[in-house]
Every structure is written in C-alpha cells, then in structure tokens.
Write a structure and sequence with these properties.
Elements (H helix, E strand, L loop, with lengths): L1 H59 L2 H21 L1 H7 L1 H24 L5 H33 L3 H29 L2 H22 L9 H9 L2 H14 L1 H33 L2 H25 L5 H12 L1 H9 L3 H15 L2 H12 L5 H13 L1 H16 L1 H16 L15 H16 L1
InterPro entries: MFS, MFS_dom, MFS_trans_sf
Protein name: MFS family permease
Keywords: Cell membrane, Membrane, Transmembrane, Transmembrane helix
C-alpha cells in the first residue's frame, strides 16, 4: 500500500514537473519570439534610416526635401503613439502589432515599386511615408505593451530583459546601418527599401506564431474599467498620470530636445556630411556602425554591473558624453578616424540610458494604463523628431553644415546639463529597491 502510494505520488510529481517545464518553455518561447521579431524588424528599419534619406537626396538633390520626408514619417508616428493607446486596449496589443507590421511592410514596398514604375511624385512619396509612420507608431506602442507581459510570463527579471532588449536594438543598428551602406553602393536605395519592407512582414509572422495569444494582464476589475472608458476619457487618464509624475515628466522634456537634435543628426546632418564631404554612402553606414559597436559593448558592460551602479550618475554622465561631442566633430574635424572614435565613445556612454528609462517606465506605470501612458510618453519624447528633421534641412540650407551642426550640438549640451541643477532627477536612485523587488518576483515566477 505504501509502495503504491509512493509510486502514485512520484508519477504525479513527474507529471507536474513535466507540465511546469513545458509551460516554462512555452512562456520563454514568447519572449524569444518577440525579441527575434523586433530584431529582424529593427535591422530593416536601420537600413531604411540610411536608405530613405539617401534615396531622397539622390532623386531630389534637396536637403530641404530630405528633411520634409523625415518630417512626413515622424509626425504621423508621434500622433499615432499619442492617440493610439485606447485603440490598442480595445483591439489587443498583440493583434495590433501583427496587423500594423504587415501594413508597414506593404506601404514601404510601395515606394520602390512606384519609383520603378515612374509613378512616384514627391507628393506621393510624402503620403506613403506618412502612412508608414502612422502604422509604425501604433505597432511600436503595441510592442511596448506586449513586452512586459512576455517578460512576466517568461520569469526573467525586468531589468535584465530591458537591458537585453536594448542590446538587441543596438545590435540591429550595428548590422543594419553598414549593411545598408554596402547594399546601396552595390545595388541601389530602392532595393534596400524593399528589403526593409520584407523585414516588417517577417517580424509580423514571427510574433503571430511564437508570442502567446493569452498573456498576463491587468485584473478583471481593471480590465472592466478600461473597457468601459470612453475614448477621450481614456486619453485624459493617461495625460493625468503623466502630469502627476515629476520625474517621468522631466525625462520626457529632456528626451524631446535630445531626440530633436538626434533626428537632425541622423536624418539630415550625417547624410549630407557623407554625401557632400565624403561622397560615399559607405561612410555613413560605418559612421552609424561605430556608434552601434560602442553601444553594444556598453550594453554588455551595463547588463553586468547594473545592480551596482547609481542610476542618476550613469544616466547623466552618459548623456553628456554621448550628446554634444558628436555634433562638434562633425562640424570641425576632417579626420575620419577621429569622427568614428567619437561616435564609438558616444555609443559606449549612451548604452545604459535606454535600459534605465525602460525600467523606470515599466515600474511606475500601472499595467492597465501602460498602452495609453507609454504611448503618450513616447509621443511627447519623439515629438521633437519630425521637428528636428525639418529644422535641420532649413538650417543646412541657410547656415551650411558646420554652423548647423554646432547649433544642434549646443541645444543638446544645454538640456543634458539640466539633471545637475534640478533635485527631482536624483530620485532615480530611490527606485533601486523597486527594481530589486521586481527581479525577485521574476526569479520566483521562474522557479515556480
């Protein structure tokens, strides 16, 4: 009798362990699938970041029109992030991610196809790029909502997952930017845009196949409250939360300015430097890759030492080193190796910034508000991007490249000095206990 009971218990235990292990594998597969899908899509987007400005410059010969194209993509992107949260709540973040990625791929493919059919007027280019921006805004916000849920299901700690996610994003830049430069030189910019369109479609398929349909979510009561809220009231709820958190609000203001300057740098200043000063798209690709190599290495270091370093110091110093010096060397230095070295050091310095921002956001925003609040913070932070692209085109046209680059570098320096004069920024370090608590919960979920 005892033997039978023991055998039964052992068998049940074995069955339970097998079921738990299978569930863990399924849950981990969702996070792996999401990271793979985003990496593939981001590689294509980084290629497009080089190919689209180069395509516009080559076909129009105008710095102003190059800025207008970047503006046409980023303005709808920002609006979609700001207004799309309630829609994502109703449709579902996973479904929205898949649908918008498919739509982005089709819309982006239309640019080279119309160009080769000699049907791509500049107004048509602006309209198609605007559609791509709108779809990407909804899709990127949806992925931000899916991400913490897949992390929770996998049992990985939030800090580690956020750092891993940022590292893969940096790796995408490392691969995509130089590959785009080489492919443009070997083939042409329209072909690179077609490849980018394909990456969106592949990413959508991977999410559809590997990310679970059912993910951890808010409580039934929170879900009922969210579902009952009218659209405008849901938006106001997001704005109210953003307005009440001083640290997040300060971060958003800083990111608005730095993103404006970075957009000017990436979409206009650097491409014009590569075309007019160096005369090669390959130089632009390797310029971006230098930054990305530093960022990938810096991300590896930060992932290792993150629990031991103060957030405020790493964030503030990283932004100062990674910002203004890049603009100064672009304006004043002729030696390529110096420009590449400064870009590499900037990448090392900036590597910890995004993981810190991601951890702060996911820790402080309630789960049932994440779609609308993450969308709003991202929209406000990125609102400077279309403006930066537009202003850069006008600045280069009126001031020439060196003066324009120094002007944007000065703006970057001023805003990254702000954390040193306002005490609210130092509250970053008070959240360390929250991060460790989240990590302990993640480890317990993994062990269970």
């Amino acid at each position: 009798m005892d033997t039978t009971t023991s055998d039964t218990t052992t068998a049940a235990g074995t069955t339970g362990d097998t079921t738990t292990a299978a569930a863990a594998r399924r849950n981990s597969r969702g996070l792996v699938g999401l990271l793979i899908a985003e990496t593939i899509s981001l590689v294509g987007s980084r290629m497009s970041l080089v190919a689209l400005p180069w395509f516009t410059l080559a076909t129009t010969g105008s710095a102003t029109k190059t800025g207008l194209v970047a503006f046409a993509e980023m303005l709808p992107y920002v609006v979609a992030c700001a207004l799309g949260g309630p829609l994502i709540d109703r449709i579902g973040a996973r479904r929205m991610s898949v649908v918008t990625d498919l739509g982005s791929g089709l819309a982006l493919a239309a640019i080279p196809l119309l160009y080769r059919a000699d049907l791509l007027a500049f107004s048509v280019l602006l309209a198609v790029v605007a559609g791509v921006g709108w779809l990407r805004g909804l899709g990127d916000t949806a992925k931000r909502v899916v991400f913490p849920k897949t992390v929770a299901a996998s049992g990985m700690s939030l800090t580690r997952a956020t750092s891993l996610h940022d590292g893969l994003s940096r790796l995408s830049t490392l691969l995509g930017a130089p590959l785009a430069g080489l492919l443009i030189a070997a083939l042409d910019a329209p072909t690179v845009l077609l490849i980018d369109a394909a990456t969106f479609v592949v990413g959508a398929v991977v999410v559809a196949l590997l990310v679970p349909v059912v993910l951890p979510g808010p409580s039934d009561e929170e879900r009922k409250t969210t579902d009952r809220e009218p659209y405008l009231m849901a938006l106001r709820t997001g704005f109210r939360f953003l307005r009440q958190d001083r640290l997040i609000r300060g971060l958003v203001v800083m990111l608005f300015v730095t993103n404006l300057a970075d957009a000017a740098y990436n979409s206009v200043l650097a491409p014009i430097w590569a075309k007019e000063i160096i005369g090669s798209p390959t130089a632009l690709g390797f310029f971006s890759a230098s930054f990305a190599v530093g960022a990938v290495l810096g991300n590896i270091v930060f992932t290792t030492i993150a629990p031991k370093v103060p957030r405020f110091a790493v964030f503030t110093v990283g932004f100062l080193i990674a910002g203004a010096p890049r603009f100064v060397v672009l304006a004043l230095v002729e030696q390529l190796w110096v420009i590449y070295l400064v870009a590499f050091i900037a990448g090392l310095s900036i590597a910890a910034v995004n993981p810190i921002l991601g951890a702060l956001s996911y820790e402080r925003i309630p789960e049932h508000l994440q779609a609308r609040v993450l969308g709003l913070t991202h929209a406000v932070s990125w609102a400077g991007i279309p403006l930066g692209s537009l202003l850069a085109g006008l600045a280069v046209q009126g001031l020439r490249l060196p003066a324009a680059s120094l002007l944007f570098g000065l703006a970057y320096l001023v805003v990254t000095l702000l954390p040193l004069v306002s005490p609210v920024w130092r509250t970053m370090d008070r959240l360390r206990d929250s991060v460790r608590g989240v990590e302990r919960v993640g480890e317990q979920v993994s062990e269970g």
